[in-house]
Amino acid sequence: MLTKTLLFDENVPQKKIIDAIQTANADPSIHGILVQLPLPAHLDEVKIIDAIDPKKDVDGLTTVNQGKLFSGINDGIIPATPKGIMHILKKLFINLEGKTAVVIGRSKLVGKPIAQLLLSKNATVTMCHSKTENLKDICLGADVLVVAIGKAKFITADMIKPDAVVIDVGINRNFGRIDGDVDFENAVSVAGYITPVPGGVGQLTIACLLENVIECYKLQSRE
């Protein structure tokens, strides 16, 4: 697989980025496009992401692909991290039907799409965020707890239901150490299953991103 990286100054005009994306859209030798987020404050993230051809949108963030996901249309591209989480749950033979799932974090890249994917498997889903009250009580009711907030060790062992499945999406770097959003060392004795950081969801994210490149190629080959 060949890749090409375009680097821009942080003060780059928005038009220059969109022009580069449109050039890549028109190039039949390019099968996948990814814009590294977050973007500088002066750039319109939605307009830039939506400049990507949905069939080359390997992150699954265009309005078209997000819309297909939330509409239950299964020919769109699913964001890699939520896709990886679902692979983990499938590998563990977790039957989500009727289970209570709590998602902490409401980003377009992880929180919202994983909530939708869990709903599609007939889980009962609660989405929590920075304004949620009584978070501990809500977490204690979760059979499946997905945490993606970017706060090191925010979820402690006393917030986890015994034998719950805990999926930690957090990557927090501090003085050379990488921690997740869950206090793994203490939570591991409570949870039934828990993903480590590093070495957990991140590896599946990379694999699913490459899988998305292949899916984008297949979509384009049908044209």
| Helix and strand element order | HHHHEHEHEEEEHEH
By DSSP, the count of extended strands is 7
The CATH architecture assignment of the largest domain turns out to be: 3-Layer(aba) Sandwich
What is the CATH C-level name of the largest domain?
A: Alpha Beta
The Rg value, from CA coordinates, equals 18 Å
- Tally of domains: 2
Shape: globular
Q: Would you give the CATH topology of the largest domain?
A: Rossmann fold
Describe this structure in words.
With 223 residues, the chain is of the alpha/beta class. It folds into 2 domains: 1-54, Rossmann fold (3-Layer(aba) Sandwich); 80-202, Rossmann fold. Helices cover 36% and strands 12% of the residues. The chain is built from 8 helices and 7 strands; from the N terminus they run H-H-H-H-E-H-E-H-E-E-E-E-H-E-H. Strands 2-1-3-4-7 form a 5-stranded parallel β-sheet. Strand 1 (100-104), helix 5 and strand 2 (124-128) form a beta-alpha-beta unit. The chain starts with 13 loop residues before the first helix and ends with a helix.
